[in-house]
Design goal:
Strand content: 5-15%
Mean pLDDT: 95
Helix content: 40-55%
Low-confidence stretches: none
Radius of gyration: 22 Å
Oligomer: single chain
Shape: globular
Order of helices and strands: HEHEHHEHHEHHHEHHH
């Protein structure tokens, strides 16, 4: 599987990128990858120099929740923290737009997963600019002040934020689950047709679906402006869930293995005393 093709390294057009790949052995292959990811995370934790931030974005029904469940199933539960960012609270709105994301960052040795991310601030707020008014920004008097330059400035602030994270030991990997509109329709109908899945449906999903083209424009713009070497975007074909999970897991493992995490060795003094320690324990 060639993984480089999923990485955004030049200007892309989402209409030219396939939303579907199918690997018939994806579920079986993922099981092997999961164990390797777990081993790498254990070494990353023991070394204690890096943390990992995984950013997941995608339209409704793109499979973010199930992907998190399946890809990280074998990782030590204490080593993974998932944050799903919803509508900002009153407290969060009293701070700058990055504040709530900054305080949720993973500690060194741990994996932090943002299920919807700081990019919502240049995505849903761009499609619904009236949301910005709730932030009470001094320079924004009305939605007329929210032009392309405003959002591009925010993207640059995000680039600076991620560069700061990378410089200080946080590995940043960003994944856009590229779902087709037809597949979203099928998944929404499935939620309606299967009683056990009714709870997942919201009429807001249909309202947002009508804005599909606006969302695709915003996604394409942010992917092109914010995919950097130290915080790259990967566009994952999401119409087939098992294959999407496998692709992401393979990319994740490949990126993490570049760091060659190593568990620290005991000091020479302790190493010299190992036989003595064993003897003490065996005498108990």
């Amino acid at each position: 599987m060639s993984l480089e093709k999923y990485k955004v390294t030049s200007t892309i057009n989402l209409k030219d990128i396939s939303t579907k790949e199918v690997d018939e052995d994806a579920k079986k292959a993922l099981k092997k990858i999961r164990k390797k990811i777990s081993d790498v995370q254990n070494a990353m934790y023991a070394e204690g120099k890096y943390g990992l931030l995984i950013c997941l974005q995608g339209m409704d029904t793109s499979g973010k929740d199930s992907l998190i469940r399946e890809v990280f199933k074998d990782v030590n539960a204490s080593g993974v923290v998932v944050h799903s960012f919803k509508v900002p609270t009153e407290l969060e709105l009293k701070h700058d737009f990055m504040w709530r994301h900054y305080i949720a960052l993973p500690a060194k040795g741990k994996i932090g997963i943002f299920n919807r991310t700081h990019y919502e601030n240049v995505l849903v707020t761009r499609v619904h600019p009236n949301y910005i008014l709730g932030e009470n920004i001094p320079t924004v008097k009305s939605v007329d002040d929210l032009d392309d330059a405003f959002y591009h400035n925010r993207m640059e602030r995000i680039n600076q934020f991620e560069n700061h994270l990378a410089t200080n030991g946080t590995i940043v990997l960003k994944f856009f689950l590229n779902l087709s509109k037809d597949e979203q329709k099928s998944r929404l109908l499935r939620r309606l047709n299967i009683q056990e899945k009714n709870w997942k449906f919201s009429d807001a999903d249909l309202k947002e679906r009508k804005l599909w083209d606006e969302y695709m424009f915003c996604y394409e713009d942010l992917l092109n402006r914010t995919s950097k070497e130290n915080a790259p975007w990967f566009v994952i074909p999401a119409d087939d869930k098992p294959t999407a999970r496998l692709i992401l897991a393979n990319i994740l493992l490949e990126e993490l293995e570049k760091y060659n995490f190593t568990e620290p060795s005991l000091s020479p003094k302790l190493l010299a005393q190992i036989d003595d320690f064993k003897a003490q324990l065996n005498k108990e």
